[in-house]
Amino acid sequence: MIRGLRPLVGLLGAAAIIAALPGAAPAAAAASQLVAVVIDFGPGGPAPLVKCVDVSGQGQVTDLTVVNEALRDAGDEQAGLCSNGLVYSLNAYPASGIDVCSDSSDLAYWAFFDGTSSGWSYSNSGPAFQLATPQTTIGWRYEPAGGATAPTEVADPAAQCPVAASVTPTTAPSAAPIAGSTTQTTQAGGGVALEHGVTTTTSEVPTKASTEKASAHEPEAARPPHGAVLAHPSSSAGGSGGSAVPTIIALGSFVLIAGGTAYVVRRRRAT
Amino acid sequence: MRRDRRPHALAWWLWGVGLATAALRTTNPILLVGLGTIALVVGWACRSPAPWGHSVGVFLRLGLIVIALRVLLQLVFGERLPGHVLFTLPSVPLPSWAAGVSIGGPVTVEAILTALVGGLRLAVVLVAFGTVNAVASPRELLRSLPAMLHEVAVAITVGFCFVPEVMNAMARVREARRLRGRPTSGLAGWRGTAVPVLEDALERSGQLAASMGARGFGRAGVPRAPWIRRAGLACSVCGVIGVVVGTYGILAGGRSVPLPGVLCVLGAVLLWAGLAAGHRRSTRTRYRPQPFALRSWVTACSGWLPVVTFALVTASGSHAISWTPYPLTWPGVPAMALVGILLAAAPLVLVDQSTPTVRRQAKASREPVRA
Fold this sequence. Notes:
heterodimer; A: 271 residues; alpha+beta; two-stranded antiparallel ribbon; B: 371 residues; 13 helices
């Protein structure tokens, strides 16, 4: 497993170190440091996914790092990128996956938006080239036929991550910040540990699921944050992906056939 | 009898085009390494004793240069996508409108792997081409061209004979430089060799074409009725368009072109019909025609097995033919694709690679071959 062996390097590694410092992460989890991530799966897709990622104390991180963190929190490994850098899947959607990369005629893509309190704007640069700004929203929408419709979710980061308005940093020290990749121990009001999965698919859209909407618009402060702290020790999804065994078998068979041929041909030519 | 020991030259070309197509259809590095290995092994084991038998090595070197260049460009100018940073090059800040291009910056494992795989695809195509040139005799191929193509024989001859003639010319020019005590290797050697080699090879290909012309290729035969010729012309133009679009569809994949295979075959049939109708009828005999026997069929088909198995794997719903380093995982190796690649080595078993006569011939044919 490449993931298990390689040393931690780069931004994520630095983030992990910062997070591991006792007390650093929770204390710095100031409300103003949240970036909202909205993933709208487009027409025919599942309900939109909303995540709040805390970038406090991270220095400069790109939007893509934040999105990957949100995806990890949702159970995906990271955004699927083609070799040329195009995003082909978010949260394992769409199912056609990597095949889109080799299909130049397919217009489907993930449209990328910057969201502020004044609304969505189509981004002119990619998420890997854009630094994450706290109190903004990163918006994605899957466009099966091209186009650039803004996500149906609200763009306002304060609406997506109400923690910003309501929660004061808790004084209770976090016991295990490293283990906090899937549970958020600090920011929720009252210090309740929350399973992140519970809160991922609220619907802010007036046209959708009015029952859900009703529950979502109960007292805002009581609404749990869709949270992820940008502080990943290493990929928690290390178990996914291929194993090295097929690679070794394949390479072994190539070496075998090359060596065998070399031996046979040499002997024949010598005689 | 001796003549069908080796597959037909056309069969070798079909085999090589199959391998190259497979290489262009996949981004899985393991499958690419497999295709490259098979091409190299077959090229080395079955190579012709003639001077162009060395073209595998030349194309292998060319392929390695392509890979190195690709990685270098990626390191210096590539996109800086996030990943596992190996080291950081000193960087130059660029204005915001130059997003997507960079000069220097962090170098990630993912970026290097992307460049390696991209280079590897081209390298495999080059090696497959080199192998075909090493194993198939260009003259045999020309001899077996259908009579209707004789009118365009000059162009085809120059096309097919260029690589073999480059190999011949390189041997000659290097020998000449060695005799004069000039350097034959390294940068200095290349500087003195490149231009004469290219010039010589083109000239010789042209000479061969001219000598073929003198022997009756391209001779104007009995003209056909004008309407037949016009219909033939229309047919062949449509056929060429069909073949080109179909080939693009096969290589580009996805839904860019509906039914690319059917389009390709239809185009080929139209092209054949057009050429058959349009060419001036002339009667020629063939000297010792080489049969396209079982050996040739197996060779030609085995080269397309990787493409077929890749398509089957994709059709079965697996994404393993494509691979990107984002996220960084081991590439999967579908068993069927692996079998397809290994079976593409079938010519190894079919072709009698050895016989001491080959070595004697190799010595004898070092002299420039003339048409």
